[in-house]
Amino acid sequence: MRKISIIGSGAMGCRIGSQLSQAGYSVTLIDTWEDHVQAIREKGLEVQTETDTYSIDIPVTTPNEVNESFDLAIVLTKSMQSEEVVRKLYDKGAITHHTAVLSMMNGLGHDERLSKIVPHEQIFLAVTMWTAGLRGPGKVLLEGIGSIELQRADGQTDERTERIAQMLNDAQLNAKVSDDIFRSIWSKATLNSVLNPLCTIFDKTIYEFSQNPIASKLVHPLVAEIVQVATSRGVHLDQQELIQKIENAYPKEAQGLHYPSMHQDLYNGRYTEIDYLNGQISKYGDEADIDTPYNDTLTFLIHQYEFVHIEEQS
Ligand code: NAD
Prior knowledge:
This protein is of the alpha/beta class. Helix content is 47%, strand content 16%. It is built from 13 helices and twelve strands. It has helices at residues 11-22, 34-43, 79-91, 110-114, 159-170, 181-202, 206-210, 215-232, 239-248, 252-256, 261-267, 278-287, 293-311; strands spanning 3-7, 26-30, 45-48, 53-56, 60-61, 72-75, 100-103, 123-128, 133-136, 139-141, 148-152, 175-177. An eight-stranded mixed β-sheet has the order 5-2-1-6-7-8-11-12. A four-stranded mixed β-sheet has the order 4-3-10-9. The longest helix has 22 residues, at 181-202. It is globular, with a radius of gyration of 19 Å. The chain starts with a strand and ends with a helix. The mean pLDDT is 97. The protein binds nicotinamide-adenine-dinucleotide. Residues 7-13, 30-33, 36, 63, 76-79, 81, 84-85, 105-106, 128, 131-132, 134, 273 line the site of nicotinamide-adenine-dinucleotide. Keywords: NADP, Oxidoreductase, Pantothenate biosynthesis.
């Protein structure tokens, strides 16, 4: 696997892309944001860490301009942006029947959407605990530590899985091959489906939300619904363990002082990934004849917030 593309080179795409590039791999960033692409072309990607700020030269292009094919395509747009651009890059021959397509996005159902474009055996799924932020066009902030788990979407072993994990480890990204990636995806999606919409609707940090007496009255039934829907799809989650993980995020010394990403997206006028979290859980619930009133309500409310904060402002 020689040539890697990062499809969607925002905060996380720049983290993964810059670290792979610094490990000596041939990486091309792909993004539609003209100012960002222009800034990276002119000045390189500015990387700020806890201890250092430096610039790296890294090829960057827009989907329209791509004129080569890749062995590995790591998808890191927001969930709602991925299908269209992956299809476009497939139609242009940048993704071929040899390309391993690795989704590292949050949310559920990415394998199903990608399998409309490339066969299942080309799709790999990852969950990452790394974080990243953008400080403006061409400037990424990389703090903290994290990890990545990955597996081929159809669960089959494939030498490419080991190879991708090796490349990510060469890039100090702390990767391992999972033997149950769907459990990890659903676990992270549960945390995101609880803290993201609730902190957004309440307009609270995670710690502030936890101090509301109603918090556990919302969190417990929400997690119960998600566990039931996951079970209907053959994914077995531990309800108590998930509630504990959510509560572990509450203290100020943990993630308590942060607003979740959905809050940041919404209050910065960007659409959220709600349809790939609670919205997707509601859809799966419908398919399995399971009522999901908590997930339905949160999805509805976040869409109302999007209407007020984005559509009415434009
Ligand atoms: P981001 O908004 O910073 O980056 C997404 C990038 O995709 C943007 O630069 C945007 O211009 C680009 N884009 C949009 N449409 C495109 C298109 N059609 N073609 C090419 N590029 C396009 O978002 P992010 O925070 O990097 O998140 C990406 C994914 O990673 C999300 O699923 C998110 O939930 C997940 N994630 C983020 C973090 C984090 O700390 N930022 C951590 C874990 C997981």
